[in-house]
């Protein structure tokens, strides 16, 4: 089926040039806001890339603005892959609010526990000092705990593996910073919910949608 075969007002039956649900999201948003030019090119790689570009700026830009206003670290590396999951494959279990929020919470908790176990809660970040045996142990333990706990709890969310290393490497190590980290995750999930629902994607409110 080509784009000319798609009747007006219907979502495309093919996933677009790069797979995932991004084409359906762009098509849905274009229809809602009556952007006929985008509607006619919903399966264009150029349009998909433009959407990813703009949405990435909005997603992280909003967090950066909050960070600037509050002086708190609302921007951290694992938000990037989480944002891509929410807008590229929103209907996968790993992208659901439950997996995203609980996965990052597990990662943060495992990272902090590893700091406690190796006595690194007051140590400077590994990137600012030398890498010690204790730091290597904390990083390994945190990633192992995160991976195992997500499997046991049935909430896999790959970017949580980055979150736990951010903590176990000492980049974020204060409990207050971890609380801010989780607020940032919540804000990103809220953005994902709003944009996907506006596009007509039945993004779940909590648990993954049934297969």
UniProtKB/TrEMBL annotation:
Domain of life: Bacteria
Transmembrane segments: 47-68, 101-120, 178-199
Sequence ranges assigned to domain HPP transmembrane region in this UniProt record: 50-204
InterPro entries (UniProt xref): HPP (IPR007065), TM_HPP (IPR058581)
Keywords of this entry: Membrane, Transmembrane, Transmembrane helix
KW Transferase (keyword) present: no
PANTHER family given in the database record: TRANSMEMBRANE PROTEIN DDB_G0269096-RELATED
Protein name as it appears in the record: HPP family protein
Taxon lineage: Bacteria, Bacillati, Actinomycetota, Acidimicrobiia, Acidimicrobiales
